[in-house]
Every structure is written in structure tokens, then in C-alpha cells.
Specification:
7 strands, 9 helices, seven-stranded mixed sheet
Length: 212
């Protein structure tokens, strides 16, 4: 469970992180294109599944809200950082009745079969118990999507930079996706590489048949 340092870090830098999503061309010039790639993958999966409702774990400033709400999909966003929640609620206000935002940690996810899809983009990076997060997501929804940074120089530098502020960073190999899924009673449905940024992984409940 992330501590006060984690919440403080993202609370204080909410505006900076939100700015990453202000312009896709600029983000790509700065090497942050995968931020938009993973939003697109999440939106495509929600559409593919015919999802009516999505849980956005660690929603941040709400960059996933508009792509989903424009398709008429209801979104519930949760985030532990107060400033992030404030920014997310501003986004939510543009789609009244479709988006709900709560200040909460992922350990608060206790719903069962409440959503069609649970998404966690840029969240597993900071979680020391990834299988438990995935288990909670898989209990709340029959499908889950997460982004995972790859171990290497890029992640190691983040570990040093964030670690100096009391925030842990984790990298994941493809083998870990299967292990994590097994521990969470889920299976890996699809793995999409994001270049040096890592992978986006679609999980589904183990009880479901392939293609469900």
C-alpha cells in the first residue's frame, strides 16, 4: 500500500502530470507518446467488449474520461491524491451523470461485478502487491487492463528519481504477467508492447472461455 509520501508526491505534482496529456504531438516529441497509446488501447478494449461501465484505477487528472464518455460509457475514477481528484472532477463535470470521481486508494476496491472493465494505467509502476491489485480489479470487473514498465535503464533511473522522494517504482517482465494473473484468478488475454515504455496487458477472469 503506498504511503503518505506517494500521495504527497502526486498531490504536489498533479498539474505537471496533467500537462503531459495537454498535447499528443508535444508528448510524442518528448518521448511520452505511449501515454496516449495506452489511452487508445483502453478505449479500444472497452469498445470491443461493449462495456457500459469502466473503473479507472488511479485516474489521475482524468485523461481517460473523455475518450470513454464520448462513447456513452459510464466511468468511475478513483485516485488517492487530492489535487488529482480536483482536476479529475473538472473533467467529469463536462459529462454530467456519466463520470463519478472518488478520492480513494486501490485497497478500497471492494465491489463485485460492478463494472465491465477495470483499467489501471500508470499504477502498477508504484504497487508492491500487483497480484492483489489485479485480484481486486478482477473481482470488480470481468476484464482488466494495466500498463507495466519494463525493467531496464529507464525504469532504474525512475527508481532513483522517485525513490529520493519516498516513492517506489517497479518493473515487470512478461513472465510476471502470467504469474500475477494466476495469483489473481485471471488469465492473460493479450499483451501489447509499448516499446521502451513497457507493455499494456489485458487480463480476463480464468473462468471465462477464450474469446469471451
Amino acid at each position: 500500500m503506498p504511503g503518505d509520501d506517494f500521495e504527497t508526491y502526486f498531490h504536489q505534482r498533479a498539474g505537471r502530470f496533467a500537462a503531459f496529456y495537454s498535447s499528443e504531438p508535444v508528448a510524442r516529441l518528448l518521448g511520452r507518446g505511449p501515454l496516449f497509446d495506452r489511452l487508445r488501447l483502453a478505449t479500444e478494449l472497452a469498445t470491443e467488449l461493449g462495456a457500459a461501465s469502466v473503473l479507472d484505477v488511479g485516474c489521475g487528472s482524468g485523461p481517460l474520461f473523455v475518450p470513454l464518455a464520448e462513447k456513452g460509457i459510464r466511468v468511475t475514477g478513483i485516485d488517492p491524491a487530492e489535487a488529482m481528484v480536483a482536476l479529475a472532477r473538472r473533467q467529469a463535470a463536462t459529462f454530467p451523470g456519466l463520470i463519478e470521481v472518488r478520492q480513494a486508494i486501490w485497497e478500497d476496491i471492494n465491489e463485485v461485478d460492478t463494472y465491465d472493465l477495470a483499467v489501471a494505467l500508470g499504477v502498477f509502476d508504484y504497487v508492491s502487491e500487483p497480484a492483489e491489485l489485479l485480484r481486486r480489479m478482477g473481482r470488480a470487473a470481468s476484464h482488466a487492463l494495466g500498463s507495466f514498465p519494463t525493467p531496464g535503464l529507464r525504469t532504474s533511473l525512475r527508481k532513483v528519481r522517485y525513490g529520493a522522494r519516498g516513492v517506489g517504482v517497479h518493473g515487470y517482465t512478461p513472465r510476471q504477467f502470467e504469474q500475477m494473473a494466476d495469483e489473481a484468478a485471471m488469465v492473460v488475454a493479450r499483451v501489447t508492447p509499448l516499446g521502451r515504455a513497457g507493455h499494456v496487458v489485458h487480463f480476463r477472469r480464468a473462468a471465462q472461455k477464450s474469446g469471451a
